[in-house]
Design brief:
- It contains one helix and four strands.
- It has one domain: Transcriptional Co-activator pc4, Chain A (Roll).
- By secondary structure, the protein is of the alpha+beta class.
Length: about 70
């Protein structure tokens, strides 16, 4: 299985933190030297390990923003 390469291009923000120090973060990541995408996932305190997450293109992120803005929390 080929190695997956990633680079955190921009740290946008932390949404939450668990008791053991893992954080749920929104960042811009480049996967395997591709164009950066918005990435939402959990990270270990040392940023060496990550949990499952989702990636969004800029258009998908805009659509998500609009959907969230339409919800009456």
């Amino acid at each position: 299985m080929p190695e997956i390469k990633y680079e955190v291009v921009k740290e946008i923000g932390v949404l939450s933190e668990t008791g053991n120090g893992w954080t749920k973060e929104l960042n811009m990541l480049s996967w395997n030297d591709r164009e950066p995408v918005y990435d939402l996932r959990t990270w270990s305190p040392d940023k060496e390990r990550m949990g499952k997450g989702i990636t969004l293109s800029a258009e998908e992120a805009r659509e998500l923003r609009d959907l969230l803005n339409s919800i009456d929390f």
